[in-house]
Write a structure and sequence with these properties.
Layout: E1 19-26, H1 41-48, E2 56-57, E3 62-63, E4 69-74, H2 82-97, E5 100-107, H3 113-123, E6 130-134, H4 154-160, E7 170-174, H5 182-190, E8 193-196, H6 197-203, H7 205-216, E9 221-225, H8 248-252
């Protein structure tokens, strides 16, 4: 079973054709702190994707029927060692970028963002990339429950690793609980633009999209989507639910 019934991407890099886009799964959730189970996300998305049509997306007016799109299977990600798993997924994504213009990873918990950002930085000749970060939380803390690497610290590690072009990056939809205002202030001081959910509702999704696009300019960009940015009533299986999130319609817009 593949994402959207797409053809499988060959396992050996030398056998892989040039692709416009490649999906792959990241079945890992060992750095989660509340509700486990995100490791089953790639399999669940594959099952759900068997029903809808894929060739045309009317909400963005895009036709995918002529594009070379594949499912590259799942990256190995050991549940017993977080750093080993991060390196496994990073190397898997990095190799996919050697032959695909776009790489889409489906998790899995949000610590995996660091893996994709490392691979994107390498693909961008070692230079940091812009990040559009849709999330209830900032994920830029230095420690979470005494741990330096978790779903709440992944972006701090990515920044330290030279992966994020902060001047072109934006947090969108922030509305989750925090220990204090210090982290928000620290991110602002480093150059992040933070659009809280209150800002998002006040401005509307189209204006926010234009603000984000103008900030990015022509920079290579990663979009990181944590499902807890959504209202839990629309995504009840979420690992770290925060009430009052976006609606799916707002996200599509």
């Amino acid at each position: 079973m593949s994402f959207y019934r797409l053809p499988s991407y060959p396992t050996l890099p030398e056998d892989r054709p040039e692709a416009d886009c490649v999906f792959f799964g990241c079945p890992f959730d060992a750095s989660s702190t509340y509700r486990m189970g995100a490791r089953f996300g790639p399999a669940a998305v594959r099952r759900a994707s068997q029903m809808p049509s894929f060739n045309y997306a009317p909400w963005i007016g895009r036709d995918f029927s002529k594009m070379r799109i594949f499912d590259a299977g799942d990256a190995a990600a050991t549940p017993f060692d977080i750093m080993t798993a991060m390196n496994q997924v990073y190397l898997y994504a990095k190799r996919l970028w050697n032959s695909s213009k776009t790489v889409i990873g489906i998790g899995g918990d949000h610590a995996l963002t660091w893996c994709l950002l490392r691979a994107a930085r390498d693909f961008n000749n070692g230079q940091p990339v812009a990040l559009v970060h849709l999330d209830a939380h900032l994920d830029t803390g230095d420690e979470y429950h005494g741990n330096k690497l978790s779903h709440g610290t992944a972006l701090r590690r990515a920044m330290e690793d030279g992966c994020v072009d902060i001047a072109r990056s934006t947090h969108v939809g922030i509305h989750g609980s925090m220990g204090s205002a210090d982290l928000m202030e620290e991110d602002t001081g480093k150059g992040w633009l933070t659009i809280t959910l209150e800002d998002f509702v006040e401005k509307g999704p189209l204006e926010v999209a234009n603000i984000v696009k103008e900030r990015i300019g022509d920079a290579p960009t990663i979009i990181s989507f944590d499902v807890d940015v959504l209202e839990p009533g629309e995504c009840p299986g979420i690992g770290f639910p925060e009430p009052g999130g976006m609606r799916c319609r707002e996200l599509f817009s």
